[in-house]
Each structure stands twice: as C-alpha cells, then as structure tokens.
Specification:
About 35% of the residues lie in helices and about 25% in strands. It contains 9 helices and 10 strands. About 45% of the residues are buried. It is globular, with a radius of gyration of 18 Å. The protein is an alpha/beta fold. The chain binds adenosine-5'-diphosphate. The site of adenosine-5'-diphosphate has 11 residues, from strand 2 and helix 1.
Length: about 260
C-alpha cells in the first residue's frame, strides 16, 4: 500500500509555562490520503490548530512524528526539507483582515510564496492567473487589501495559498469570519479548486455544514485527543462516542444552503 500524503504518529504537544503545563495535543495518529478532504471538528481549545500547525511543521512536537509523502518533517527538520514541505502546502487562516499585510499590494501578497520559495517563471503572470482562478480580476494585483471586502480578502488569501500549486491545502476556520452568503461562495470556490487542482484538503471547521459539504473524512477532537474519526456520513449520522453526539447537537447547521447536493 502506498503511504498517505500526511501521516502523524503519536503526535504530542505540551506547552509549559513555569510549573504549569497544558497538553494541547496527546498521542494523535492521523493519516490523510492524497486527494481526500479531511475535516477536523471539536470545541474551542480541543487542539485542532495545534494539530494543523504540527502537520505543517509550523511548530515542533514534544514527541511523535509527521511524515509528508513518506519523508519525515518537523520544525527542526533541515532547511531543505522545510523548503520542500512549504512548496507542497498552502494554508488559509480564519481572519482575512489580520492575515493580509495592509502595506503590501495584492500582487505582492499573492506572489510572495513564489519569491520566498524561489519558484521561477513569469511570477507576475502567475499572480494574475491565480487571481482570476479565485474569482477576482487580474488588475486587482495593483490594489491594496483595505479596498476589498471580507469575502474578497479571503479570495486573496486563498490565491496566496495556492499560487505555488501545493498538493495540500489547509484551512483553519477559513469561512468563520465571513457572512453566510459569502461563506457559501468561498465554500463553492474551495470545492471547485479542490477538484480542478486535485488538492488534498485539511479543514478545521466548527461548522458541520461546511464539513459535510466538503469533506469525505472527519476527525473529532476533544481535550487534545482524537476521539473519533471516519467517513463523514458515518461520523455525522452515526457518531460512536457521546462527545461527538453532544457536539453535533450543540452546533447548529448555520447555512442550510451548504447542504445542497452536488458536492464534488
Ligand atoms: P483549537 O484550535 O481546537 O481551538 P488549540 O490547538 O488552539 O485548540 O489549543 C489547544 C490547547 O492548547 C488550549 O488549551 C490552548 O489554550 C492551548 N494552547 C494553544 N496554543 C498555546 C500556546 N502558544 N501556549 C500555551 N497554550 C497554548
């Protein structure tokens, strides 16, 4: 059997401050198959962001390993290995206001990974192309973030996350700061890009509707542990652990529109 694109084993992250310590993630095992879309759900503070940061080597585990396409990666890996990992991955965060540098033009923001990763070719043309891919206009490259709405900014953030053609796209609550209509549009856009670019998707979301719409696997987290995982329909319709049942009952499906059939 081929190895999954991402494989975590025994992943643990303990934050220490003086004499107290917080186990943000405890002994997590996770496989993300190439081409799949995996949703991570759980209450605030359950360790979702910590897991994602460790998988992307943005943080170093206290113990455990992460392999990406069979190669071991963590934040203490060599510069070459980290550079290689950055080329394979892109991330979109929750807040499209905080995540875009207001002093940089949209073109510079979106193109930054191309320069940072030393990707050759016509970078300006690639930036214009990817802006159109996310439903913006190529000429918007000359403008600045404050000229755009929240939804447009999240499109810009998405363009930056995929400009270098990663294999894995990670979203840490990428839709939460957006209003309902815009959320549905960005959701549809992510689904479209996923299919078109054959992206593997890892999505942290507290919105079950989003996960149901976009993800074929779900991971449920509680107190730093993965308490349940499996195919989306199975986990959402027949949760095995009481925590998942409570979680599902406590989270309203905010936007019924995202449950439309026709998911990719
Ligand atoms: P989630 O993404 O599910 O909201 P997080 O991964 O952000 O959860 O946090 C998991 C736990 O780790 C929480 O108890 C949080 O307070 C703690 N934590 C996260 N980051 C830090 C940090 N930099 N320093 C100390 N504790 C942290």
């Amino acid at each position: 059997m081929t190895e999954p694109l991402v494989r975590a084993r025994g992943l643990t992250r303990i934050y220490r401050a003086g004499r107290s310590s917080t186990t943000a993630l405890a002994d997590a095992d996770l496989d993300v198959a190439e081409g799949s879309a995996v949703g991570i759900i759980g209450e605030s503070g359950s360790g979702k962001s910590t897991l994602v940061r460790l998988l992307l080597a943005l943080d170093t585990p206290t113990s455990g390993t992460v392999r990406f396409d069979g190669r071991e990666v963590d934040a203490s890996a060599g510069a070459r290995r980290l550079h290689w990992l950055r080329r394979q991955t892109g991330i979109v965060f929750q807040d499209p206001y905080a995540s875009l540098d207001p002093r940089m033009s949209v073109g510079r923001i979106v193109g930054e990974p191309l320069w940072a990763l030393g990707i050759d070719g016509d970078r300006r043309a690639r930036v214009r192309e990817v802006l159109e891919d996310v439903g913006l206009e190529a000429d918007m490259a000359e403008r600045y973030p404050h000229e755009f709405s929240g939804g447009q900014r999240q499109r810009i953030a998405l363009a930056r996350a995929i400009v270098h053609r990663p294999r894995l796209l990670v979203g840490d609550e990428p839709l939460s700061a957006l209003d309902v209509t815009v959320r549905a549009q960005i959701l549809a856009l992510i689904a479209e890009l996923r299919t078109r670019d054959r992206l593997t998707l890892l999505l942290v979301s507290h919105d079950i509707g989003v996960v149901q719409n976009l993800c074929d696997q779900v991971v449920v987290m509680k107190d730093g542990r993965i308490v349940e995982e499996g195919p989306t329909e199975r986990v959402l319709l027949e949760p095995q652990v009481p925590y998942t049942r409570r979680l599902l009952a406590s989270i309203p499906v905010i936007d019924p529109g995202v449950n439309d059939p026709g998911r990719a």
